[in-house]
Amino acid sequence: MTAGSLERYDTELTNPGLVILEMEATSKEDATAQLAAKLFEQGRVSDLEGFLRHVNAREHQMATGLPGGIGLPHARSDYVTETSIAVGITRFGYSLDFGAVDGPASVILLIATPASSFSEHLEVLATLARSLFKENFRESLRRAHDQEVIAELINSTLVFFDH
């Protein structure tokens, strides 16, 4: 992307339309389904049910909770058209068990990558996890209360990433 060019939503990993604030979810599956629906609405996922099957299968293999109240469900899937991240920040009093040893999650990031993009998937996952291990980054996400700001925080942490 050249300096001064307009950034378009469809070239970014996430955007304000992929952020759910004040999320009320009854389970990690419900939260994942709400976030996946956002990806589907933007055409980033071609088959919602198929994609959710892949995410839930991955979730059954290993818990995706990170310390500090983070849920990081993810899947590589034939139903993903471009690498994307949907973000949910739960409403006060709501938290979801993603299997982290220190307790439930209030920030959920759903990472979707095309099935063929193995190295890309690992790179996004690793980079995002590194940022999420920093308390100030987690707190910035929680306190933002603004979809634009949250999308920018996520995109800026993955600024190296060109897909």
From TrEMBL:
Annotated Pfam families: PTS_EIIA_2
SUPFAM superfamilies linked: Phoshotransferase/anion transport protein
Domain PTS EIIA type-2: 12-157
Source organism superkingdom: Bacteria
Keywords: Sugar transport, Transport
Official protein name in the record: PTS sugar transporter subunit IIA
Lineage: Bacteria, Bacillati, Actinomycetota, Actinomycetes, Micrococcales
